Amino acid sequence: MxxxxxxxxxxxxxxxxxxxxxxxxxxxxxxxQLIRMMSQHxxxxxxxxxxEGNWITRAPSLKRKMALLAKVQDEGGHGHYLYSATETxxxxxxxxxxxxxxxxxxxxxxxxxxxxxxxxxxxIGWLVDGAAIVNQTMLAKTxxxxxxxxxxxxxxxxxxxxxxxxxxxxxxxxxxxxxxAMAQDAVNRWWWPSLMMFGxxxxxxxxxxxxxxxxxxIQSNDxxxxxxxxxxxxxxxxxGLTVPDPDLRFDEESGDWKFGEIDxxxxxxxxxxxxxxxRQRMEHHRRVHAEGEWVRAAAExxxxxxxxxxx
Length: 311
Ligand code: FAQ
What we know:
The chain is mainly alpha-helical and 311 residues long. Helices cover 68% and strands 2% of the residues. It has 13 helices and two strands. The protein has a two-stranded antiparallel ribbon with strand order 1-2. β1 (249-251) and β2 (256-258) form a beta hairpin. α4 (62-87) packs antiparallel against α7, α6 packs parallel to α8 and α6 packs across α10. The longest helix has 29 residues, at 145-173. The chain binds Phenylacetyl coenzyme A. Phenylacetyl coenzyme A binds next to α2, α6 and α9.
């Protein structure tokens, strides 16, 4: 088939809801967009281990510590699935990590905020994993097979993370005045950054039209953000907390919780590397990656020896 015929066949398959698999022909731009988005997603999972990892040694009980340890390990596992899924597109993880270290690949803005109290751990599980689930439930239907399948498993684990986070915040909200204040303070600090996770408004999102056309994304940034707000506000109210938005109101006609404007200056500042913890997160990743060099070398030597013995 010549290129025009290949493109037509590819677009027909997308329109019919087929999954595109690694060995199928795909436009170079589709491959590039997926590598960009999926590697960013993988980096987010791994960098996202840092803010929560910060509280493993200070969890208030053995049970809380065990749940947090398991959650942080799950996030590392999600990074692995996603790096593997991205490798099916013809890039290896060494190169993806180089791109991250050189600032050529991004990770989610949310992980550049500090975790100042135990309540932040509950709020991350509830709001950050909650926002991730809304986005990822949509991505489970994406047109690229390996990404879609990785999302199904990841969403199941994220649902559990969200429940454990909401349970931590509920416990604090029903506790002493000081505990309730701690929970409210965490919601105040994490609310707007959680809404920023969905990316810029549709009109300001350079990648959305192309991604929606190829059914990489099934819903837009603004649609998903609104869905998250509609799901979350009743949960906030159920435990007697509030969100820091004086413009929040329920709109009877649309059934939506309408919310105020995001501080886009803050969003772009954080995305461009100047948020509260960007430098710390990247320094930590670089250092730990360098410290792990011997593990990678040993694994490669072992694989080479096994292959030599087999031949
Ligand atoms: N942060 O044209 P768009 C998690 C960039 S996983 C940083 O709208 P697109 C689980 C964007 O890359 C969370 N950068 O882009 C967990 C683009 O720049 P580029 C991660 C952002 O791709 C919980 C530019 O702005 N989830 O939380 C952000 O159509 C707890 C223009 O934007 C995913 O990655 C942002 N928030 O839509 C783990 C999901 N927003 O690349 C540990 C997959 C936008 O052209 C602990 N990704 N940018 O230089 C996506 O769904 C999409 O890529 C969006 C952005 C929605 C993030």
